[in-house]
Amino acid sequence: MEFDSINFSYNKYSQLLKENTGRIPKGKISTIIGPNGCGKSTLLSLLSRSNQAESGQIIMNGKDIFAYKPKEFAKKVAMVYQQNEGPADLTVEQLISFGRLPYKKAFKNKSNEDEEAVDWAISLTNLDDKRTHKLEQLSGGERQRVWIAMSLAQKSEMLFLDEPTTFLDIYYQIELLELVRDLNMQHHLTIVMVLHDINQALRYSDQLIVMKAGEIVAAGAPAEIVTEDMIKDIYGVDVAMQKHIQTGLYLVPLGI
Amino acid sequence: MNKKILYFLIVIVLLLAMAGYSAVTGSVSVSFKELIMDLLDGGNEKAAAIIDFRFPRIIVAMFAGAALSVAGVLFQAVMRNPLADAGVIGISAGASFFSLFGMLFLPGLYISGPFFAFIGGSVACLLVYWLSWKSGLNPLRIILTGIAVSAMFTGLREAMLMICSYFNVMVGASNASNLLMKTWNDVEVLTIYGLIGIILACISSSWCNVLSLQDKKAKNLGMNVSAARISISAIAVLLAAVATAVAGVIVFVGLLVPHIARQLIGSDHRILIPFSALAGALLILTADTLGRTLISPLEIPASTIMAVIGGPFLIFLLRKSDRVHGI
């Protein structure tokens, strides 16, 4: 997926995204980082067609994303949000089946393919023993896995995640990021996510897209683009960058 | 699942029992046997009167209850708001005002009542959407806007009635909010449009299910959210309008029934919609039967009974509404 000089604003007073250009490499994990309000979630919403850019172009597989029919696009791109809502009394399985909507034909019941996709999504997200549980009975981490499973049932090529770890404790954060890496490595999904935690972004991404005030200031492999000076410039925080033997690059904030 | 079938059976049995009880009780009363005999070969005057006057009333009560309950379910789905009810958010008031208007100025048209009611309901619905939409629908804002829209149309209607009485124009009993003097004509209008609406509602049930996710997720699943919202709203307005045109404004049915139905059989619209239709029919038939037997020969309109039960219920729902839709 490539995007070329896209502009976007929610109102006429402030330009939120300015001339964003970049590409999302197929089969890789790309993470968008940047300070609050820099437009990272907005960029993701444009790439996933939730919002439409005012100018510029977003091309997927050689075709403008708005040239796809809604259901065709849903088979290519699935999205998981920071906060999700659904009826509290539906079971895990019922909710995940919503992911099959793009494949549903009018007046037809579930096909074998639908059931297989739902089973596949459930087993990948380790929800086998929660299948018949209701949404209200699940913990925060389990709920987030249900939403991911719903998106997996879409059987899309790309999975977008908008700050998926924000409301989770550290255990569930790591669990979720490991799942994302797994989906990428084993099942070749192209991942695009927005993360707040720079260390997690460093560790789990093939490509970082760094944004500041609506502009993309850097993009590339974490080790190539992230420097102490750049973090100071983007976030205004002094950091020390170190290399851990097991996990690679990490940052320690020193002060502001 | 068995439990759900059981609830369906209970409501169906209660509905049949209530219809039977309602048919034989009242100012003219006959035994069941006499009624059945007359249905088969006629001749009993009392039974004939019941068939002419009470049967239409019973059928109108049931269909009005069913239509308003299903309209409530649909409004709650599209507005993502457990408090949306055709009566509360002004749809019924709009329908009622416009149907009065139609009756006064185009009385010759047989269909004019329901048709104008539909126009009025749509106008009220558009007003509620337009005035409460602010990058999404805020549940409380819908209710507040709805109350304002409802008050406006109720006021207009009363003003028009006042002017009519000044000029000695008889508006007729058919415009009052009760189920007196229902004829087989009313039954025909209500059953045809009511059934069409309920069938369309059942067809749209899987859309309603997807709308219970966030709009952006529904969109991401390839659904045309605006189109779905407009068509489901139109079905809801049709149901509320035709019920209002025939049975008058009855508030709170669309609030009470879906809420209880959700507690009993869950929020899957594929079963919630048919169940609400049955339960709504039962509720209004019960309210109407109670209304005409409690202090007979005086009558309390079903809408009055519903207002008395529904008011406290709305307060109860408002108090717990923060917990209703949040995950």
Automatic annotation (TrEMBL), chain A:
<dbReference type="InterPro" id="IPR017871">
    <property type="entry name" value="ABC_transporter-like_CS"/>
</dbReference>
<keyword id="KW-0472">Membrane</keyword>
<keyword id="KW-0547">Nucleotide-binding</keyword>
<dbReference type="InterPro" id="IPR003593">
    <property type="entry name" value="AAA+_ATPase"/>
</dbReference>
<keyword id="KW-1003">Cell membrane</keyword>
<dbReference type="Pfam" id="PF00005">
    <property type="entry name" value="ABC_tran"/>
</dbReference>
<dbReference type="GO" id="GO:0005524">
    <property type="term" value="F:ATP binding"/>
</dbReference>
<dbReference type="InterPro" id="IPR027417">
    <property type="entry name" value="P-loop_NTPase"/>
</dbReference>
<feature type="domain" description="ABC transporter">
    <location>
        <begin position="1"/>
        <end position="238"/>
    </location>
</feature>
<keyword id="KW-0408">Iron</keyword>
<keyword id="KW-0813">Transport</keyword>
<keyword id="KW-0067">ATP-binding</keyword>
<keyword id="KW-0410">Iron transport</keyword>
<keyword id="KW-0406">Ion transport</keyword>
<protein>
    <submittedName>
        <fullName>Iron complex transport system ATP-binding protein</fullName>
    </submittedName>
</protein>
<dbReference type="InterPro" id="IPR003439">
    <property type="entry name" value="ABC_transporter-like_ATP-bd"/>
</dbReference>
<dbReference type="InterPro" id="IPR051535">
    <property type="entry name" value="Siderophore_ABC-ATPase"/>
</dbReference>
TrEMBL record, chain B:
<feature type="transmembrane region" description="Helical">
    <location>
        <begin position="53"/>
        <end position="75"/>
    </location>
</feature>
<feature type="transmembrane region" description="Helical">
    <location>
        <begin position="143"/>
        <end position="169"/>
    </location>
</feature>
<protein>
    <recommendedName>
        <fullName>Probable heme-iron transport system permease protein IsdF</fullName>
    </recommendedName>
</protein>
<keyword id="KW-0408">Iron</keyword>
<feature type="transmembrane region" description="Helical">
    <location>
        <begin position="269"/>
        <end position="286"/>
    </location>
</feature>
<keyword id="KW-0812">Transmembrane</keyword>
<keyword id="KW-1133">Transmembrane helix</keyword>
<dbReference type="InterPro" id="IPR000522">
    <property type="entry name" value="ABC_transptr_permease_BtuC"/>
</dbReference>
<dbReference type="Pfam" id="PF01032">
    <property type="entry name" value="FecCD"/>
</dbReference>
<keyword id="KW-0472">Membrane</keyword>
<feature type="transmembrane region" description="Helical">
    <location>
        <begin position="298"/>
        <end position="318"/>
    </location>
</feature>
<keyword id="KW-1003">Cell membrane</keyword>
<feature type="transmembrane region" description="Helical">
    <location>
        <begin position="111"/>
        <end position="131"/>
    </location>
</feature>
<feature type="transmembrane region" description="Helical">
    <location>
        <begin position="87"/>
        <end position="105"/>
    </location>
</feature>
<feature type="transmembrane region" description="Helical">
    <location>
        <begin position="189"/>
        <end position="211"/>
    </location>
</feature>
<comment type="similarity">
    <text>Belongs to the binding-protein-dependent transport system permease family. FecCD subfamily.</text>
</comment>
<feature type="transmembrane region" description="Helical">
    <location>
        <begin position="232"/>
        <end position="257"/>
    </location>
</feature>
<dbReference type="InterPro" id="IPR037294">
    <property type="entry name" value="ABC_BtuC-like"/>
</dbReference>
<keyword id="KW-0813">Transport</keyword>
<comment type="function">
    <text>Part of the binding-protein-dependent transport system for heme-iron. Responsible for the translocation of the substrate across the membrane.</text>
</comment>
